[in-house]
Structure formats: C-alpha cells, structure tokens
Design a protein that fits this description.
Number of strands: 11
Largest sheet: 8 strands, mixed
Keywords: Hydrolase
CATH topology: Rossmann fold
Structural class: alpha/beta
GO molecular function: epoxide hydrolase activity
Protein name: Alpha/beta hydrolase fold-1
Distance between the termini: 62 Å
Pfam family, one: Abhydrolase_1
Strand order of the largest sheet: 4-5-7-6-8-9-10-11
Number of domains: 1
Length: 402
C-alpha cells in the first residue's frame, strides 16, 4: 500500500530525496540481500514539486532490515544489476581486529537513538571487505585506498597487476562494504587504531612478503605500520601522500566534517561526503554509475557518515604528527624498503611544492603524472597499474618476494 505524504526533510534526507527524484525509484520487485534472502519491503509514495510547481510521484522501495532510522535507507535505482552489486560479488569478508567495546547497542551521537542493524558493529571481530585477484603463487601486492574513498577506486589497476601478481585490495573500517562501527562502540577511528587494525588484517591475510601501495591521507598510517614490519615488505609505493609540513592540514572540503554538529549533518549528505570529496581534489569526472557505488554506503545508513565525521576529527587532531613521523621514518638510515612516490600534478588538495626536493634528497624514486589529480587511480588507473608493475619488476625475477 502506498502512502502519500508531504514531508519536511532533514538536510541529509534532502540529499536522498534529491537522488531518488533525479534517478527515479519505481521498482517494486523483491530485493535480495547478500545471502539471497527475500526481505520484507516498505513502500512509500512521496510528493515533490518541480520548478514548474507540478507534482511528481516516485516510490522509495527499501527492505525493512536495511537502514538505521537516522537516514533514509536503501532504495533501488534500477532493475538491472548495479556496479556496486557487481563489485561486491568479486570480494569476500575477512574477519580481523577484535572489537574493544562493552557490547552495548550503538546509538547516534545527536539524538541518542539506538541505531539499526546495519549500523551495529560485529560483537567479536570486525569484518573487512577484500577483493583478491591473480595467482596466489605470484608475489603479493596490497592496494590501499585513500581518505575518503573505497577499494573500488582500484578497479582499473587490478586487471593490469593481476596478470603477474597476487593482488589484494580492501575497504578500511568505516568505508565501502567493511564494518562501520559507531564511534565509542568498539572503534573510535583514531589513527593509532587504524595502524593496529591494519596489522591485524595483514596478519589474517597470512602474507609472507608483499608490496604496499597506498594513496592519499592514509599513507602516514601505512608508513607507521611499515616501519615496524620492514622485514615483510618488498616495496612501498606512495601515491600523492601528505609529504610536507604544509600537507598536515586537511583541505576545507574534508575539514568541514569535523565541525561540531555541522559535521554530523554534512557527513550524512552523500553529495557532499562522496561526490564533492572525490571530484573537488582533481580533474576526475565521475560517471553516474561509478558515483552510485561511492554514494551507496551513505544512502544505506547513517553509520558511514558518523565514521567519516569521527575520522576527520582524528585526522585534524593527529595528522600533522603522523606526517612528521612519516618524513622522519622515510629519512632514517634504518629505512631499508625500496620506496617510490607517484604524484598526480593536478592535485588540488596537496601542493607539489617541496615533494621533488624531499624525494631527491633521500634518493626515493619520483614519478610524475601531469594529467592526474589526488586520486591518481581514478584519473589514470591503467597507467598507474603499469607504473606499479615496472617498479615491482624485481619481484618477478626472484630477487625478492619468492
């Protein structure tokens, strides 16, 4: 039964309303969850007015079990398979890093309402969404996405590398299909927690020797992990990392999510949290089908937004110290890992000033991509894959990693 109503939306709900009206949500077919079980559906019929002041009706058709009551949830944007569904089928869940909490049900930080099932973290060990490609007998490569993004950003790199390497990429906790625990209910999104959780995941993946590729603001976290596990690493490739002291400040596009109350609201807006964060930092022009993959976590529940909000506050507080530590680590005589920096020169967030001097002084290889921005793997995915493959070539000769 369809219920017709006029509704006043919260800011984050207006974004969902905008998306639904833009793409049209008309499907009434049963929707399957990832286990194949048919879920009960709620059907709502909303009225909206166009610029010509005429009514348009459209349907929101979401499973009852999806969503958390804090933000609009679910919705089916087409009858056919989406890129998000196709990407999910390529991956698997890996359990790693214990939950340090009381087991209490998570509540949203604004109203104190208990969050729904999709916003509740695992009670024992967190689930990480991982995509694996290539022959496991080949040298291993781990691709790590930046902030904010998803493993999906490496979709163009995977086919290039998987010909000769065993490639793994994953969604960080709080992103994509991985668990998104509510802050203060098992994971607080501090940078130290991300270091320890990365260690747990790599231990669970049971990799002996491997190479690490990391993009953007997660680079200092990965370097801190790497500094304690150099014996495991063949190569380290940093893609547009925050290398200089000036890079320790988040751009306004991201720092706004750390603002009191305003951050909680804006982080629930998929157009601001996803689209703007991906397209404002370089020349990247998102296709609509790719944009829907990145929006999906923010449309499904409020947990993605609260994770973004918590991590941004942690970055704003501790990023400068982590950048300084990364510079010290990479400059140390004790650093023995072959290191390369790959830089998209059209990065609007991180200035190129000082990057070349830093790399030359330490004899770290620097590769420049004139047409790429901050998210190099989005702008020049295949080219980045070839650059990585060339850098890792010694692994194929048996010198390392075999």
């Amino acid at each position: 039964m369809a219920i017709q109503a006029n509704i006043s939306f919260l800011p984050h709900q207006r974004s969902q309303s905008f998306l639904d009206s833009r793409f049209g949500i008309h499907s009434l077919k049963p929707k399957l969850n990832f286990t194949g079980r048919i879920l009960e559906r709620r059907k709502f019929k909303f009225c909206s007015r166009s610029s010509a002041d005429r009514e348009e009706d459209y349907l929101i058709d979401a499973p009852v079990s999806i969503g958390d009551g804090f933000s609009f949830s679910g919705g089916k944007f087409s009858d056919g398979p989406s890129r998000s569904d196709e990407w999910f089928k390529q991956g698997k869940y890996v359990k790693a890093h214990p939950v340090f909490g009381t087991g209490e049900k998570a509540k949203d930080p604004i109203f104190g309402l208990t969050m729904g099932g999709s916003s509740q973290a695992s009670t024992d060990v967190f689930r990480w969404f991982c995509v694996e490609s290539g022959n496991a007998a080949n040298p291993s490569v781990v691709l790590i996405h930046g902030f904010p993004s998803q493993a999906y950003s490496y979709r163009k790199v995977l086919p290039v590398l998987s010909k000769d390497y065993h490639v793994i990429t994953f969604d960080w906790l709080g992103f994509g299909f991985s668990d998104k625990p509510q802050p203060r209910y098992g994971f607080d999104y501090t940078l130290d927690e991300y270091v320890s959780s990365l260690e747990s995941l790599i231990n669970e993946l049971d990799l002996d020797k491997f190479s690490l590729i990391v993009q953007g603001y997660f680079a200092p976290i990965v370097v801190k992990y790497a500094s304690n596990h150099q014996e495991k690493l063949n190569n380290l490739i940093l893609v547009n990392p925050p290398l200089t002291e000036k890079h320790g400040n988040l751009p306004s596009t991201l720092s706004i999510f750390s603002n009191f109350l305003l951050g909680e609201i804006f982080s629930q807006d998929p157009l601001r949290a996803s689209d703007k964060a991906l397209t404002s930092c370089g020349p990247y022009k998102m296709k609509e089908e790719d944009a829907m993959v990145y929006r999906r976590p923010y449309l499904t529940s409020g947990s993605s937004g609260f994770a973004l909000n918590a991590l941004t506050r942690a970055m704003k507080k501790d990023l400068k110290g982590y950048v300084k530590l990364m510079r010290t680590t990479l400059s140390s005589d004790n650093w023995k890992v072959n290191t390369m920096v790959c830089w998209g020169q059209r990065d609007r967030w991180l200035s190129y000033d000082g990057v070349e001097e830093f790399c030359k002084g330490l004899k770290h290889e620097l590769v420049e991509l004139p047409l790429a921005g901050h998210h190099v793997q989005e702008d020049c995915g295949e080219e980045l894959g070839r650059i990585i493959a060339r850098t890792l070539q010694p692994d194929r000769s048996g010198v390392r990693g075999m």
